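Help! Submission page says 'invalid entity' but I think these are all valid:
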Amino acid sequence: MKFSDVVIIGGGPAGMSAALAAAEAGVRVTMMDRFSEPGGQLVKQTHRFFGSEHERAGTRGIEIVEILRKQIEENPLIEVKKNTDVLGIYSDRVITFEEDHVYGRMTAGKIIIATGASEKMLQFENNDLPGVYGAGAVQTLMNVYGIQPGQRVLMIGAGNIGLIVSYQLLQAGAQVAAIVEAAPRIGGYKVHASKVRRFGVPIYTKTTIKAALGDHRVTGAVLADMDDKFQIIPGTEREIEVDTICIAVGLAPLSELLVHSGAEMHYVPQLGGFVPVRDEYLETTAPGVYVAGDVSCIEEATAAMLEGSIAGVSAAIASGMNRPELIAKREEFVEQLAILRSGAAGKKIRDGLKLIARREQN
Amino acid sequence: MRKTADVVIIGGGAAGTSTAYYLSKMGAKNVVLVEQNYTPFGGTGRCAAQFRLQFGSISNCKLGLLSVSQFDVLGEETGFGDLEIDKHGYLLTAYTEEEMECRRRDVELQHTLGIQSVVLDPKGCKEVAPFLEVGELAGGSYCTGEGTINPQKMALAFKKGAQDRGVEFYNYTKVTGIRVEGGKVKGVITDKGEIATECVVNATGEWGKFIGRMAGVTIPVEPEKHQICITEPLEYIGGPMIYDYRYGTYISQVKHGGFLMGWSDPDVEAGIIDFNTEWRVLEELCRRVVKQVPALANVRIVRHWAGQYGNGPDHSIIVGPVPEVEGFICALGMTKATMFAPAIGILAAESVLKAKPSLPMEPYTIDRFAKGNLIIDPALL
């Protein structure tokens, strides 16, 4: 059976960074991704990144993808399996997959799971009408395929994704009728909120969507106020005319393969859902199985790339490459990630990580 | 948690919930069921969901007939509702004249008990199972009174019926010991406390041996892993479950269109309880299935899971009292707890209440092994 020192499942920002970090440390890497090109969510991120220069601040996601793809292509130690769905991870470390519709299997020394996240859905009447989209789908339609999903859009959720996608909809020429947010305050960065407000888009907090209107496709929506317990206040319902409803109420880790590999999982709301217990080098309780990116905790691409680097170099070190310079490099990545999460915006993540840290067993 | 009970049933799978249900129906009071996980965590919830009448022994045929008669009324009787029963039948294949002779002999025996099975030639096999490759077949036997039941719903229906009649269920309660004094059961010790009782029912399937040991009872049952997979849905054309002795497999298309299949791996390691799936088993199963149903060659597997049989020397049920300890009743399905659940429950309940059994008990009690009277059923894989 074919063998690779490190098999990385998922070719988004975390997976690509993990592949590069591991291969640069000198081990053989196989990276699997279900799409025709690696890149994950970066392929539609047209906005500039924040953070320090280290993490490519000021660069757009679509540019970062090109850089990472090129480095991966040029690295002879990295094999990329495109159009590949992983089917199973077995207790004897065999990974089975479907590559271009053909079943295959291989063994791995170490496995890095970087499968990312999926969008959460919201329950309301008629939420299956054509015209109801996830924010990620809207972003893909516009930024990857150049298709404007609608004329007049209602955005549900004022986190960073809701705000950024609203801004991109405006850039694409759509109207954003309103952004509604169930929480009492806007969840995303102020700079993103200010941008859409300058276009005159109202942001209604403590508000939710009660129903989508329309027979065959969305023609409007019913909004309603919410009390402090997130219950709809009767009598506050009002209609709004839109042809598109875009849902940006958060992401949930795609953690099925972690469960499959036997890693201990816990529900940590601060990190987005079921996430694995891990040590500071991102090894889970399943020996030799590492985690990186949104499947580890819902965060930004910058953090995902750093986590990928930590997991990649850790997997290489654990494969025998325990050289001082690699250990030093890993500490650098760990420190950069700590700095990235050190501000007020990182508090939620820091709180969540405390709950999931792998404790030394006596 | 209760401190005392008239009967404590250990195990919340098909056999345990069924025993609870029929005990309560027969009027037993103060009945408690303890389950280490939830209903139905173990073999019941993981099984292939089939029930069957075509056996090669009178004792197994009778269990099948009694069980099917109860399946037909269970959903309504308990108020649970639909149990997704589909009597698509089994097709038991034969490749040689010798095997055909076996099928004929079993069908003859089945006819004496009123089971409407028939012997088919290869053309007849193709008619009832159009997806089956019949080129090498000599024929088979077929019966429409058997088929599929949703085992999860069945166990939950038994549970509902029992709860409605006063049985108390304790999930996530692990039995750690059985108190025996002077050769009699006195109590069941769990991780949540002890329940004083003079009667315990061992309905723990693959864990049956270990529960027996807690009371000093030897039970010849070994855990044996068995793996099943199901494909993505295809157009539903129905047809029977293909039960094949040469390949050691069974294949059946379920209502939502997926093909469900399993293989009895002869090299399985007995004695270990784990629920890990194995790619080697999956691949071997697929190789064997594609030879029989070539259309499945390019179909995706969407789920693959492992369960445990509690298997024994003759693969037939162990129900009733044991010689070593008074008040210790077995309700062990020995690979057939789902398909025989009603019969196991009825016979175990009758044993507990010392009532007249619905079927002669000799072929089912544990003392058959000491006497050397094993049930030899040639129609089992």
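Support: the input was valid. A stray whitespace character was the problem, and the output above is from the cleaned input. Residues 58-78 of chain B form the longest helix (21 residues).
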